[in-house]
Amino acid sequence: MSIKLNMENLLREVEDLEKKSITGEKVRLIAVSKMHSTDEILEAVSGGAVEFGENKVQELRDKLEVLPEQNFHMIGNLQTNKVKYIYDKVRLIQSLDRVNLLEEIDKRAKSSNIVVDCLIEVNIAGEEQKGGVAYNDVRNFLEKCLEYNNVKIQGLMTVAPDTEDEKLLRDCFKRMFKLKEKIKNNYSEVKMDILSMGMSQDYKLAIEEGSNMVRIGSKIFGKRIGR
């Protein structure tokens, strides 16, 4: 298996899928590099990868020490006591889903006189085992976010249910797109440029339904080996 070749093929596939999207937007591909080595990341870079997603703070910190020039996103659950280690080092925090995390990011950002870009994570299917703001609570949470000057909401993120039910997946993705558009049309101060949805098993459907950022790991790096 060649990570470089996987990456090149996937980029071409995503470019073709953009033509089937309801928006026709360019889609950003986040290579999910959790549990993969820095050498594997560099091989993905050679195949065209420019942004990477990590789930765990310690692993992200270790990789940033070796690859400080790479663009990393925090895509996993973020504990408030770990914010201080990564808030000023990642390109995007995709998993903002509660007020105490919002407050901590804002506090740290203010102390550094920077603005941290974030996505609101939405629990689109109301799954108890997943993080994310409940669908019906997103607008209230967004209004809370707007009270903080050092956090900038750039869009929404979701992790769809782990299912092969295409109808259910499309419904989830359609609802996310409608929510993004509704916010964009009603909150002039929010850009809502990013809709991050779709992973290795469902990215094709997600792009068709309006995703402009997908997070893909196994189709690039192969199956993870836990450690």
From TrEMBL:
State its cofactor.
Answer: pyridoxal 5'-phosphate
What keywords sit in the KW lines? Pyridoxal phosphate
One GO molecular-function entry: pyridoxal phosphate binding
| SUPFAM superfamilies in the cross-refs | PLP-binding barrel
Domain named Alanine racemase N-terminal is located at: 8-223
Which positions carry N6-(pyridoxal phosphate)lysine? Answer: K34
User: Which InterPro entries does this one have?
Assistant: Ala_racemase_N, PLP-binding_barrel, PyrdxlP_homeostasis
Q: What does this protein do?
A: Pyridoxal 5'-phosphate (PLP)-binding protein, which is involved in PLP homeostasis.
Its family remark reads: Belongs to the pyridoxal phosphate-binding protein YggS/PROSC family.
HAMAP family linked: PLP_homeostasis
This chain belongs to the protein called Pyridoxal phosphate homeostasis protein
Q: Which organism is it from?
A: Peptoniphilus asaccharolyticus DSM 20463
